[in-house]
Each structure stands twice: as C-alpha cells, then as structure tokens.
Amino acid sequence: MSTEVAGGPAIWQDKKRHLWLLGLVVPTMLFLVLPLVWALNKAELHTAAQLPLYIGPILLYVILPALDLWIGSDGQNPPDEVMEALENDRYYRYATYAYIPFQYASAIFGAYLFTASDLGWLGFDGSLGWLGKIGVAMTTATVAGVGINTAHELGHKRESLERWLAKITLAQVCYGHFYVEHNRGHHVRVATPEDPASSRFGETFWEFLPRSTAGGIRSAWELEAQRIRRTGKSPWDPRTWWGNDAINALAMSIVFWGAMIAVFGVALVPYVLVNAFYGSSLLESVNYLEHYGLVRQKQASGRYERCTPQHSWNSDHIVTNLFLYHLQRHSDHHANPTRRYQTLRSFDDSPNLPAGYGALIGVTYFPPVWRKLMDHRVLEHYGGDITRANISPRRRAKILARYGATGTTEQVAA
C-alpha cells in the first residue's frame, strides 16, 4: 500500500501521517479533563476533583513512558526518493501551526481557573484551592514546555512566518532567547565544552540547569550584539531594538504577561512564575539528555570536527516522537538542522538512549539513577576511553582517577 506525498509519486507510506495530530492532545488536555473534574465534584470528591488538573505532569511522567514501553520503537525511515516531496508537503507544517492557538487558549483558560472566585459551574464551592491551582499552573507550563519543541521546529526554517511563530510560542515561558541561541549558538558549538546546552559527563541536571539557562541568555545577547555591530550600528541604539531578536522576543513575553496580569490581577503572578520556570525546565531537561557526555574531537587545526549523528543521543520510541515531532531523532537533526521533522531519520549506529524522552525527563532529576543508567553508555560509545568524553571540569580529576584512560563498563556501573 502506498500513500500520496503531495507533489510526489505514490511509492511510500508515512504510517504516522495522520497520527501527527495526536500532538494536539497536549495543548487541549486541560479542556479534556473538565468533564472528569465536574463528575468528581458531583460525587462530593472535591479534593480528588483537583487531581485531574495535574494532567500535564501525569501525561509527561506516567502516560507517555507507559505508552513508549508498551508500543516500542518506530523503525520507519523515509527513502531518499520521497524526501523532497515529503519536505514540501504543507500538511506537516500546518500540524505544527495548529499547536500554537491551542497553547494560548490553554494559557488564558488556565489563568481564569487560577484566579476565578466562583467555579460553581465546575462543581467547586468558590475558587480552586492551592492544590488545584498548582495543578493548573503545572499543566499549562507543560503545554508551554512542549510548545518550545514546536518553536524549535519552526525556528529552524527559512520562512519569516515560521520564525515569528517560533518567537510567539516561546513568549509564554519567557524563553525567547532560545530562538537566537539555539540556532546560532548551540548548533555551532554543540557537543563541545564551550556549549552551555551540552551537558557534561558527571554533571548533574541540577548543576546543568543554571549553567545552561544563564549561558544561553548570555550567548543570545552576545550573538545579537555581534550581528548588529556587523551592520555598522550599535546594539545600544534604540532604533535597532525592534530588529534585535533577543529584545523583541523578550518584549513579546512582557506584553503577553502584562496584558494577562492586567486582566486577571496580580493574583496571577504565581501562575506566571510556574509557567516560566517549570516550562523552561522541561526544555533544559531535554537539552541535558540529548548530548550528555558526548563531544566533538578537536582536529590538528584546532577546529572541532564536523557535527555528525555520533554527537547526539537518539531515541526512536514512536509515541513520544509523535508528541514531540521527531525531536528524539536528534542525531539526524543536528547533522541536517533545516530538515523538517517528517523527514528526519533514525540510525542504528547513532548512540541510542535506553528509553524515550518521556521516560527519561523524570530520571534526569535523580543524579544517581541517571548516572547508573547513562554513564556506562557514554563509556561504551567511546570504546572504554573516558578521556574522549565531554567531562565536567569540577569532577574531571576524580573521574579520570576512577576510570583512567581506558575505563571499563563494569567500573562505570559500579
């Protein structure tokens, strides 16, 4: 059986073509649980009625890992002869565009639930308690955190519309600098000690999070200042600010949340903070697991070797891939950064994660579990020579003393 790839010959079937719309479950999930909330309130289970409002973390930490484990890997790669037609099929980009209005509808509705004084229509006696408010905030932050992946997909593209949509998507989590730093910083420095978004062997997530966040913000502002100076202008000249992507992206966040606080009141501030901090932390946990310990070697010229699929951890678990638009096929993404998500491939010779992102995001929070799961894989990838890995400077002496130049899997797992 074959499927029509717009503009191309009917020679290959994208079995996931219509399944990509499952990604829209994420920005609509707060609305989808409302009947359950109402039913639990009608049953006089008012505390339990607030638990479905945590559907964001539940989906992320429980449902996706369980589905990945149950359904398993994808294994389907598009052949060369359909790549151009598949890239040009606009259905796939519309599937990502559709995420954005639902994301903001969720953010606005969540703000209403967080601040409303009378939720009698939902079965509550007055407003939500803090148990429910935190659940709403974490769910909308999950929507926004996953939305960063939508921004990631669109921000790599050449069309002006898609680039602006990327910045709009990032505004909710106040992470507009990602648009600049990821494309012009991370993709240039990936898997090197100079890259704040590439985690190091022995570095915990809690050490990586502030380093990557602060380093990314600093890098974005420096990159934009350099770009503006190359045009013969000063980055401090107010006339350049609208064209400064670090500034206009930040302005979007200020305008959006300023308007939201004006409408819903200062009681919304905790909601804003959860959206910004928890939402962006989801991106950074993904950054952490995507390049852990991997490094591009320096050549005799002093330049780093070209980025290849060997410099990113890969995963082909189909369910999380559907929800994250093939982000887990990260090895191919870094080798071909402008390639659209539907054409990304998974290769057996890439370093592969033991599970999908959905299962591993939560694991990153527990350093001993993460290191037991991943350190021996880094060592195996480098043929037992730990000196070839990207090692945390703080722990370099200890790690080298423990593993030596040719550590063993048994030593790492110990």
3D architecture notes:
With 414 residues, this protein is mainly alpha-helical. The chain is built from 18 helices and no strands. Helix 3 crosses helix 7 (130-155), helix 3 crosses helix 15 and helix 12 (269-290) packs across helix 15 (357-363). The longest helix is centred in the middle third of the chain and has 26 residues, at 130-155. It is globular. Mean pLDDT is 91; it is low at 407-414.
Task: Give the SSE map.
Elements: H1 25-32, H2 34-42, H3 55-71, H4 83-88, H5 90-97, H6 99-115, H7 130-155, H8 160-170, H9 177-189, H10 205-230, H11 245-264, H12 269-290, H13 318-323, H14 330-335, H15 357-363, H16 367-381, H17 396-403, H18 409-413
Helix pairs in contact: 1-6, 1-7, 3-7, 3-15, 6-7, 7-8, 7-12, 9-10, 10-12, 12-15
Q: Uncertain regions: pLDDT < 50 for 5+ in a row?
A: 407-414
Rounded mean pLDDT is 91
Order of helices and strands: HHHHHHHHHHHHHHHHHH
- The chain-level structural class is mainly alpha
**Distance from first to last alpha carbon:** 50 Å
Number of helices: 18
Shape: globular
The portion of residues forming beta strands comes to under 5%
Rounded to the nearest angstrom, the radius of gyration is 22 Å
Number of strands: 0
Helix percentage range: 55-70%
Major beta sheet summary: none
